[in-house]
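Following up on my earlier message about LMY7XDAE. Here are the inputs again, as you asked, copied directly from the submission form:
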Amino acid sequence: MSAQLIDGKAFAATVREKVATQVEKLKEVHGITPGLAVVLVGEDPASEVYVRNKGKQTLECGMNSYEHKLSSDTSEADLLTLIETLNADPAVHGILVQLPLPDHLDSDLVINAIDPAKDVDGFHISNVGLLATGQKAMVPCTPLGCLMMLRDHYGSLSGLNAVVVGRSNIVGKPMAQLLLRDSCTVTIAHSRTKDIAEVCRGADILVAAVGRPEMIPGNWVKPGATVIDVGINRIERDGKRKLVGDVDFASAVEVAGVITPVPGGVGPMTIACLLANTLTACCRAHDLPEPSDLTA
Ligand SMILES: Nc1nc2c(c(=O)[nH]1)N[C@@H](CN(C=O)c1ccc(C(=O)N[C@@H](CCC(=O)O)C(=O)O)cc1)CN2
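Thanks, got it. Here's what our run produced:
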C-alpha cells in the first residue's frame, strides 16, 4: 500500500496566510511592520534562488524586506559591521545570513554576532542553549517546519519513538530537541551508529537529515511509520538533473504510513517558518503576544 503524502507546499501556503493575517493586524492596531534583513555573500546559484524567494515571500506577507548582497571577497570585518548596523536598526526584527558562507568567513563567528533576539534562523549559541534547556528561543526554520507538520498529523507526539538520522547543528540536533520537548523518545543516529537499519526500524517518526542522496531504503522503515525527509540533493540520473531526498522514496512510500516528498515536502516549510519567526521576533521586540500556532 502507498503512504499518504504530506503536501509541504500547501502546508507552507497556510503558514504564510496565517503570518500575513497577523502582520495585517500588527500594522492596523499597532502601526508596526515586521522587517526581515537577508544577507547573501557571494554568487552560489542555489543560495541566490533561496534569497530571492525569501525576499518575495516576505513582501507577499506584508513585511518589509531588506536584501544585502555582498561580493564573494567581502571581508569578515565588513560583514560584521553590516550585522552591527542591522542589530541596531529598529526597523529590522529578523536577520538572516544565508549559508553556506564562502570559506574565508567563519560562520560561527558571523552567526554569533547577530543579536539573538533577531536571529530568526535560531542558529545563535544563545538560542541553541535556550532550546536545549526548554526555554523561549528562536527555533531553526527547517526543524520548526517538520514539527508543525508532525503536530498537524498526530495532534500529540507524546510517547512516540522518534529517530533523527543526522546530527547537524542546523537540522539534526534542534529537531531532536523539539521532538524531546514534545515528549517523544528520541534517538539521534549517524554515520557511526551500530546497526542503523534496526535503529530506524524502531521509529514511529523517522526524520532523515543526513545530506546523502536516497541513503535510507524502504526496508529501514517500520510499516506505517511517518517519514520526514529533510534532504535536498541534486543528482544526475539518466542524463537528467534531479532533486532527491535522503530517503529512497520509491521503496519507502510502499512501507511508510505517511511521507514527505522531495521536492514539495519539508523544503517549502523552511521559508514559511522564517516568516513566522520574523513575526515572532517582531512581537517579542514590542512586548506583544506572539501567535502560538506559529512557534514551537
Ligand atoms: N541561513 C540559512 N541558510 C540556509 C538554510 C537556512 O534555513 N538558513 N537552509 C538551506 C536553504 N534554504 C533556505 O535558506 C532552503 C532550502 C530549500 C528550500 C525549498 O523550498 N526547496 C524546494 C526545492 C527547491 C529547489 O528546486 O531547489 C523543495 O524542497 O521542495 C527552501 C529554502 C541552506 N541554507
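One observation from looking it over: The chain has two domains: 30-117, 141-266. Hope that helps, and feel free to reply on this thread.
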